[in-house]
Amino acid sequence: MKIQEGLYYSVEHEWLRVEDDKAYVGITDFAQQHLGDIVFVELPELDEAVEAGGQIGVIESVKAVSSMFSPVSGTIIEVNEELENAPELLNEDPYGQHIAVIKMNNTADLDGLLNETQYSELCEKEEQGGE
Amino acid sequence: MKLSIVNFAKKRSREGNNMRYTPNSATVVRKMLQDIGLGSMAELYADIPDALKLSRPLQLGDGLTEMSLRGHLKTMAARNISVEDMPCFLGAGAYDHYIPAVLEQMLQRSEFYTAYTPYQPEISQGILQSIFEYQSLICELTGMEVANASMYDGASALAEAGIIACSVTRKLRVIVSETIHPEYLQTMKTYAKSGHMEIVTAPAKDGVTDAEALLPLIDGQIAALVVQQPNFFGNLEEIGRLEQAVHAQKGMLIMAVDPISLGILKSPAEWGVDIVAGEGQSLGNPLSFGGPYLGFMAVSEKNMRKMPGRIVGQSLDSDGKRSFVLTLQAREQHIRREKANSNICSNEALNALTASIYLTVIGPQGLRKIALRSHQLALYARDNLLKRGFKIKYDQPFFREFIVSCPDPAAINEKLLQHGIIGGYELQDGLMLAFTEKRTQSEIDRLIAVLGGELHA
Amino acid sequence: MPKLLIEKNVPGSNAFALPPCDLNMSPLEDSIPSQFLRQDAPRIPELSEVEAVRHYTELSHRAYGVDDGLYPLGSCTMKYNPKINEWAARLPGFAHVHPYQPARTVQGCLQLMSETEKMLCEIAGMDRFTLQPAAGAHGEMTGAMIIKAYHTHHQDHKRTKMLIPDSAHGTNPATTNVVGYKVVELKSNADGLIDLDDLRAKMDDEVAGLMLTNPNTLGLFEKDIDEIAKIVHGGGGLLYYDGANLNAIMGVARPGDMGFDIVHVNLHKTFSTPHGGGGPGSGPVGVKAFLADYLPMPLIKKEGEEYSLDYDRPLSIGRVRSFYGNFGVIVKAYAYILALGSEGIRDACEQAVLNANYLRIKLRDDYHIPFDRLCKHEFVATSRKQMEESHISTLDIAKRLMDYGYHPPTVYFPLIVKEALMVEPTETESRERLDDFIAAMQNIAQESRKTPDIVLSAPHSTVIKRIDEVQAARNPIVRW
Q1: pLDDT tens sequence for chain A (131 residues)
Q2: How far apart are CA B69 and CA A46, in angstroms?
Q3: ipTM > 0.90, yes or no
Q4: Do B329 and A39 lie within an 8 Å CB cutoff?
Q5: Strand, helix or coil at C306?
Q6: Of 3.90.1150.10, 3.40.50.1980, 3.30.230.10, 2.60.120.330, which CATH number belongs to C342-456?
């Protein structure tokens, strides 16, 4: 299971990459593995206002469905429309495919997120707990 | 209640009053208990605290053998009058249409009716294909792009349609015309108690939706408008203006429809409807005192993933063979759980199969003929009633059902019964009469004669 | 490969006709303006009667019902569907009765419903039942709405949550959401039962109630149900019984005696009505007297010898559907209960529990059984041994079972057990059938050790192999 360097992580298995005041968000390798083959991604609406921890999308696989939460507050300024026709891109390249871009309105939200090490520990704990 | 082996053996003797579908004899049961290290049946319930166990047998009677059961049920059924005994002019959401003999035979194939939901596609291809065909037929009738595998009935399907609209538009208000079936409206109101939907009614005028009163209600708050076509009174609703108004406000148009009427009436898709719901009882399902019936739902493709219920899709197996499978299951309760918008699990699969077989047997011309005949008999009745001086309550185009004005419909129905006719649906000031292809001119002549007082009691 | 109806379309082959009628047929447009009329006929396939019959006959050959063999689906209670009940539901006096006929012409129907209500009350330990809900989930929704109505009527508007065990069937949390409550999940303890401490911690004055199955979805009886009821009632909540597993206790114990305030039962599970390939079912809801006012209307009233529909119920939650319920299904359940009688009901329950424990004990050597102790009518196994040996999953085992001619047990449920295989034989299986099933399962376990590939690539003998479900969900084709 891959964890990429240089990203923020959320306890809900989202990753976040910051560019100026923009946050690129997606789901982690752990998330896509557990979902299985992803069949549909319900993207957020452009210009939608989001709260940290609020739901911004839904990801469906054959056997599961998962809500996607925004790790930060702000406004949706871009969505990855390729995912509409090729949801499997999230399985193939979870860190290379963002789901949405959020213009942050409170960078302090980033303080509540995890770094790679913390996220790695979280994943280990969840793997063990699952059995 | 502790059972000793002796009592137990006595219970399981061949002579008894009751039916038993458990195949193991007392000897076999004893051996099975021994095999698994238990001394008695009572030990199977050692995990239930004694205080919680029944200290007496259930009071359900001694049971009946099949012969006695048969007699008992026959007597009970004979206490009822059926539409095989008398012509029936009742409609109001359930119709006495002819059920072809093929249906009764095919539906008794136990592979169909004793099967479970086709979650294991490799051994359920027959069931899955039949559902796929049913979905396709509903799409053909309604003109919509996607249909689900069935819901409970027209009322609950309509209620769920309202919920979908609220979820899609993220608004709460659903305007419902008062010309829909009153029980459908009541059901929608009950479902709305969840807080996921808010019902506002639009009044009727002259037997159809009062467009003048309704149009001002259609604003930016509206999630959906719900109409029925033909409406509860049998009248046809002008949809054009309403559709434009709803869509201008980004609301959804929901229509409850009658499937037989779709043999000749404009399809909901042509009206610009977003969600179709309806009652499929007319498609070969017996009246059965109100159930089991058949809720159907169809939507446009863009709303496919919002539709509740099971959906069968086509795919390929690993050998490249065309195959059918339950798909888009991530919408359903067993996956969505607390995120689900609908909790539907069991549906009306066998009634849906009934509808498919019915449509196949009557064929495309048959559906049209049945709709035409039903309507023409209604016209014949109307014309003759008018000739006799009766008033038809509403002056509207209608399909196969209309209301005769009268001050005491209950009394008229009683009189009709005495003359061997099941009358119409009682409204406050009128009797609603429905006509199907099973009715004949002579039955109608007799009906009118009794109504007109020409036949003496 | 079987064709679809539309692929068998032969114009001119359908001969369905109506009897002649010499009505003066004016053009349709005279009575219905053309704006209301259809321009294009719906594309319904045209087949002759013989080809229609062959089509559906062929489809039936590619289906599998209880009449074909064992169907050990946990949580579904796939017991034998008695044929006398099928006959009963088709009697014209039941099948061909319009729901709006005057009461005096349907006394037999009303009597049947009334007596069914009484029998269900007796079996469940409740005071009144509604027969209106069309399925178990529909009954759950009805029950949850009754709970809501009760609290609302008592001005208790704080209650916004419903407690649901993590082992619950998906309909329970779905129902909770549908009715407008928030789900609060209760943990199961190491014994597979409700964690009482977790319950105590989460039961507060914002909780409307607890939805419970007993025995639970692991087939284990919640022995602390008394304490559970005390905790929930003590906090002002109501206790709801999901009757899916009633087959495990009927005649031996009753939810009404355990502290449950409201129950639903599944006629298509416990009471032998057929599953129909997915429905129709029926989910009557029973309540203790203090909740009866909230039941959907109408109820059936008996005055003297006369039955009628009772609409005078001002506190009722209203209707959850049109008409009165799935009457044609209720007839079958009525006949079943009447035929079995007190002894038969208890006997069915006992045999169901015996059969489940018999299987559990005979399979324990080959399959991991996480809660390997006295169970009720069903138990959960897993593919853990097979997974460790040869990476064989529950899904693989299920597919291989089909090659042996069996419908697989329920797979991947309950969610709290990884790779779950839930087995419920029911009481209508003989020891011979059970032994055959055990042999098949043992063979598969053997294959998993020696020749795993045959399991991994199963099924081999079914009409199709494994399906690409991912494509079906990514690019859905849902009509011809």
Answers
A1: 888 888 999 999 999 999 988 999 999 999 999 888 999 999 998 998 999 988 898 898 887 888 899 999 999 999 999 999 899 999 999 999 999 999 999 989 899 899 999 999 999 988 876 44
A2: 66
A3: yes
A4: no
A5: strand
A6: 3.90.1150.10
